[in-house]
Write a structure and sequence with these properties.
With about 170 residues, this protein is mostly helical. The protein has eight helices and no strands. The chain starts with a helix and ends with a helix. About 20% of the residues are buried.
Length: about 170
Amino acid sequence: MAQVYLWLVAGVTLGSMLACSLGEDVLCIHSLDNWTLLDLLRQLERIPPQLCLNDRIDFQFPWQRENFTQMHKTQRTCVRHVMLQQIFKVFITPHSFAAWNHTLLSQLLSCLHHSLEHLQPVEEKNLACPHLGIDVRKYFRRIHTYLEGKKYSSCAWEVVRVEIQVHLVLL
């Protein structure tokens, strides 16, 4: 598990170095924020994910990796913004504060807020946002429904944490 995480971090770091070297300030900020978000999500782990294998579910993420990477840059930015908003909504709830370490959760929420502030002006100019946002919101509605159905159990939170971590890599 640790080796997989190290490869994941190496990939995100390499991607952020490439984006920064291309002079894309917004991409640089987003890549570095992603690394921080991924690290904070990793630190939130309370129980080993393998103990929750029976609780896994397909939340039907709206895009495959290939489709997402082929999106126009402004569409990806829109999806990123809506995804981060929805992740914020998942973790700002009282149920979330009951499940996770408060310090780490506060750091995660702060990082999400910081990322959202940088993306706000870009989303306002993007006409594709309303359509793409619907798909993201449906995906997160399934996550909220799952958590409610599982009564916010530790394993349900762990499944959601891993799900968000996996798809955050795409952003």
